[in-house]
Design brief:
Length: 245
């Protein structure tokens, strides 16, 4: 199929008001699959770092190809945008805006989307996706709202000690499915809070999840902590969660 066919898609920009976020609102991007019909219902993928998932991850183009070429069931994507200046404060469980962001996601984003779009409201039909700290906050949103989310897609999740301690305090995660990918060249990645071995962080987190009976798909591949790596992994990751029709 020609590339033009993949670029003909519907992306709606939304503004959601919030009582939890200090700024009072947040921007969303909503990808509607080819042939979207509001009389039907669709699985849905919620992405942290929404702007980057669309611009650098090219998730809308990837989704369109998977639906048109590979026969995946059509699905909706919501990208929740973030201000880079407050990203760590919202995504890191130690951040001073983290609890507010998690509440915003579970109590405002979900009702807003489900009132406007034909999405399924089963926790196995909702997927939380994120890269680095976006993968971290996706896991913590699922842990905070286990009746809403059973599935997490983590691209090189930044699972620092605070996240691991939270996991250690939980007895069972037999309801949770986590897809984890990390690049082998991420063993000394410099962040704004220090240098971390993301491979070891992800291995330890995988083991903590498995010990609590979570379902985990885990893979290490050649790759760096950047969208050039994650973009190539998105088709496989989405196919893991979205069924073929």
């Amino acid at each position: 199929m020609s590339n033009n066919a993949y670029l003909k898609r519907t992306i709606v920009k939304e503004t959601i008001t919030s009582k939890f976020l200090p700024e009072g609102e947040r921007q969303l991007r909503v990808f509607l699959p080819p042939g979207y019909n509001d009389l039907l219902s669709y699985p849905i993928v919620y992405c942290q770092d929404g702007e980057e998932f669309f611009n650098f991850g090219r998730i809308a183009t990837t989704a369109t190809k998977l639906i048109l070429d590979d026969g995946l069931e059509p699905f909706i994507i919501v990208g929740v945008e973030v201000n880079v200046k407050t990203r760590t404060a919202e995504y890191d469980p130690n951040g001073d805006r983290h609890k507010n962001y998690v509440s915003f996601f579970g109590e405002e984003v979900i009702p807003f989307i489900e009132q406007k779009y034909a999405v399924r409201n089963d926790p196995t039909e909702r997927l939380l996706a994120g890269d680095s700290l976006g993968g971290t906050v996706s896991l913590h949103i699922a842990l905070s709202y286990p009746t809403l989310f059973h599935r997490v897609l983590s691209l090189s999740g930044a699972f620092y000690s605070s996240s691991q301690q939270i996991l250690q305090s939980i007895q069972s995660l037999d309801w949770l499915t986590v897809y984890m990918i990390v690049g082998l060249q991420e063993d000394a990645f410099e962040t704004d809070t220090g240098v971390y071995n993301f491979v070891e962080l992800n291995r330890t987190t995988r083991d903590l999840l498995l010990a609590r009976n979570a379902t985990v798909y885990y893979e290490e591949k050649d790759g760096k902590h950047q969208w050039g790596f994650w973009q190539k992994e998105l088709p496989q990751a989405l196919t893991y969660f979205i069924d073929v029709e």
